[in-house]
Specification:
Glutamyl-tRNA Synthetase, domain 3, 503 residues, three-stranded antiparallel beta sheet, Rossmann fold, mainly alpha, protein biosynthesis, Glutamate--tRNA ligase, Rossmann-like_a/b/a_fold
């Protein structure tokens, strides 16, 4: 790729960043890094009515947690700043007026009431109202009014918007990096508003101007923006600017595969749709986040990378650096990608095994009050034994509580299965065998107990099942001899005696 690659992620600060937005940011990041380019964050806050306090900070924190930080943006390497559109609003009007001067846009003075009346008239006739070439001369705008009338309205301070003048009877041939060749009949396009009566640009004008001024080379965004592609191409043509290359990513679908994934789906099926927890500043409602639910950022990113893209190999587990090396925009799919909550758990389980035991122990200890007085090194040793069965740090206590406290009860089904007529006598003899072990290790305990079982010609299950039940309280957990070594010889004997006393 010869051109200097600059891509941008341009969210609106209207609430928490949806997981679909994270996927868009990720694909932009991967594309930029693959081509030694720049990943830009721009905050598109032209709609001040929908602005939500704390949303911009949330977006930045989410990108950082996901390990896809921006190279350039608010407060960071501001070569093309400012990066908030609300702080750039003074420059957009000049560009809108430039389009008027070149006959590519016009002032429209229609009131909301007048437009609503036209809309209802069309509906009564079974038609859809579209403000464009077929009716613009019948409406109140600078194309239908005389220049003097236009100046009078402007001088009087009448409200107006600036609309793009969509061409008639033309065919646009557009190219999309994901979808290929796209053909558009301009007769079906409406004259979109570019500049609003409140003095702010619409998304359509602002993003084109900013992409040009920030030298964006590739626009990689969600499929929902595909209907705007024709207008955006025409705006580049109208300004006489070179358009960036476009790629529209497939939708992320509900787990059923039908319809776009929403927060409601997550609430209903019990999984987050946001990277971080979000507390609504108006209602104080809390929305779950992947971080707070115990997911590792690497697992979330690895999972999201496969929503709409595949490497063309059997490999599924990728670090971020490996994703950068493997990423190819040509392998992004057109079809929507189904969100699978079980698959992201599968990824998290894998990344659990990759975690450093000492770091996991610190996190585990901080979450579990029962571990307050336990040496973190001992906790790390326990974690090493049981993490292969865990998906989340929150799973660790249920998998390991018997390393820290003796069973208070015994699983009923396990008790019936393990306890036989001769079990009590065998357990009493077993404590004697354990007492003979002087240099206690996993191996010495195993050799002594297995040697005794073999010499006595006892079935292994007759001893090992009640032994596990005594230590754990159930017929589960890691290797019995690892447990005995960890809790110590005397604690092991005490637990065996506790079980024998119930028989």
């Amino acid at each position: 790729m010869t051109k200097n690659v600059r891509v941008r992620f341009a969210p609106s600060p209207t609430g928490p960043l949806h997981i679909g937005g994270v996927r868009t940011a990720l694909f932009n990041y991967l594309f930029a890094k693959k081509h030694n380019g720049t990943f830009v964050l721009r905050i598109e806050d032209t709609d001040q009515n929908r602005y939500v306090e704390g949303a911009e900070e949330y977006i930045i924190n989410a990108l950082n947690w996901c390990n896809i930080p921006y190279d350039e943006g608010p407060g960071k390497n501001e070569k093309f700043g400012p990066y908030r559109q609300s702080e750039r609003k003074d420059l957009y009007k000049a560009y809108a007026e430039e389009l008027i001067a070149t006959n590519n846009a016009y002032y429209a003075f229609d009131t909301a009431e007048a437009l609503d009346l036209h809309r209802k008239e069309h509906e009564q006739n079974g038609k859809t109202f579209i403000y464009n070439w077929h009716n613009r001369l019948k409406l109140t705008n600078s194309l239908s009014l005389t220049p003097e009338e236009v100046q009078e309205k402007l001088a009087a301070g009448e409200d107006y918007v600036i609309r793009f003048k969509s061409p008639q009877d033309e065919t646009l041939h557009l190219k999309d990096m994901v979808r290929g060749h796209i053909k558009i009949d301009t007769n079906i396009l409406d004259d979109k508003v570019l500049f609003k009566s409140d003095g702010m640009p619409t998304y359509h004008l602002a993003n084109i101007v900013d992409d040009h001024l920030m030298e964006i080379s590739h626009v990689i965004r969600g499929e929902e923006w595909l209907p705007s592609l024709a207008l955006h191409y025409q705006l580049y043509q109208a300004f006489g600017w070179e358009a960036p290359e476009f790629a529209h990513l497939p939708l992320i679908l509900k787990p059923t595969g039908k319809g776009k994934l929403s927060k409601r789906d997550g609430d209903k099926l019990g999984f987050p749709v946001f990277p971080l927890e979000w507390i609504d500043p108006k209602t104080n409602d809390v929305s779950r986040g992947y971080k707070e639910d115990g997911y590792f950022a690497d697992a979330v990113i690895n999972f999201l990378a496969f929503l709409g893209w595949n490497p063309g190999t059997e490999q599924e587990l990728f670090s971020v650096d490996e994703l950068v090396d493997a990423f190819d925009i040509a392998r992004v799919n057109k079809a929507g990608a189904r969100f699978d909550p079980d698959k992201i758990k599968w990824f998290n389980h894998h990344y659990m095994q990759e975690q450093n035991n000492d770091e996991l122990a610190e996190t585990f200890k901080a979450q579990q009050k029962e571990l307050n007085d336990i040496d973190v090194n001992y906790v790390a040793m326990v974690v090493n034994l049981i993490k292969e069965r865990a998906t989340f740090v929150s799973d660790l206590w249920d998998l390991s509580h018997f390393f820290f406290e003796a069973p208070k009860t015994y699983d009923e089904k396990a008790y019936k299965k393990a306890i036989k007529d001769d079990t009590k006598a065998l357990l009493e003899e077993l404590t004697t065998v354990i007492n003979t072990v002087e240099d206690v290790t996993t191996e010495t305990l195993q050799n002594a107990i297995k040697g005794w079982i073999t010499a006595k010609e006892i079935g292994f299950g007759k001893v090992m099942m009640p032994l596990r039940l005594a230590l754990v309280g159930a017929l589960q957990g890691p290797d019995v001899f690892d447990i005995m070594f960890m809790i110590g010889k005397q604690e092991s004997i005490k637990r065996i005696e506790n079980l024998a006393a119930t028989i």
